[in-house]
Amino acid sequence: MLRVGIVGGRLQGLEAVYLAKQAGFEVAVIDKDPLVPAAALVDEFYNLDLIGGGLSAKALVTEFDLILPATENYEVLVWLKKAARQHNVPLAFDLQAYNISSSKKKSNRLFTMAGIPIPEQWPGCDFPVIVKPSNLSGSRGVERVDDQDYLRALMNRLGDDIVIEKYLAGPSYSLEIIADKGKCVELQVTELNFDRGFDCKRVIAGPNTGRKADEALREIGKRISSVLNLSGIMDIEVIETDNGLKVLEIDARLPSQTPSAVYHSTGVNMVSLLADYWVDGRLPARGKLFGGDCRAVIYEHLRFRRGTLEVAGEHILTDARNLKIYKDMFTADVMISNFAETSQEWVATLIFTDETEMAVWEKRNRAIDAICRSFYANRFIDPEPFGEGGVDYDQIIL
Q1: What is the CA radius of gyration of the chain?
Q2: For 269-273, what is the mean pLDDT?
Q3: Same CATH topology for 99-103+169-289 and 296-395?
Q4: Is the model's pLDDT at 292 over the cut of 80?
């Protein structure tokens, strides 16, 4: 049995652990925080600071068949690269590609050089604009700005290490690719839904999801992989506009959320693919990965507190403790939650599958109703980012 050491037990680590367990691997997590969410789901947990761990940390690396980083701590990533090379242990990570993808400024320069479409950059665009910290991933620090005065104040407060670009409204899609020296295999396109803070609250996958964007997004993936000379995995997020797809960001690491949605839709396990590539040197042909029909999937996060059930971004799981995996509960195929600890306040990730997107939405809606009744919720909220097409609706449970 393959023994995988996952470094980092927060959101990326939770994703990696779930998929590694689904692949049948023996899984350990290493994290200096003893209370990370993934700690409750692994075979072994090592509460260890690798940087300050001395010989015991270096010896630990040799116990694994594969090291999978699930952290954005650059000092740890550099340490892992050196330790893995020294002890000849496969490290599922491309540090060179990550150096570019972890900086939105560097990424945008690469996109411009390669002719890859991105949103208009400030000051060459009108309001509203989106302000993003260059070196933070996901929704952290992201703000929409509608006027010059607030933008000026924000720029004075944040300094120069930000990206300012045109705010675009439209469907958002994600694509993972796995590559060997720039030659990539593109996986499944998924749709992303966001909460009020621009944090991804829901991933949708299925037979018709992203069909119009599929070919163009896969071509973008091939081009980015080639110019990066990528070895390993990368996630690409785009938005669909009247003028085609625009790339919002890339992350040359195992992402959270979308890999589990792809797994439940197609059976393709990205952690298993990474193991095949980094341990055995095998990169699959896309045709062999997606030979059969895919199922429709909804993957989303819920928070219950003070009588309100709310769909929210994955940030709600950051400090979750005592998570457990449940099967076939509230019509969900999988539920990862700490609701058993207290019925008064809990968080959960739910995964639903069915034959079609319409059918899976009906299944999900039945689950929401059942959860609200079981926990005596009197309010259900599914907030979206403000702006074009955005609504915030409350459903009172009778």
Answers
A1: 21
A2: 97
A3: yes
A4: no
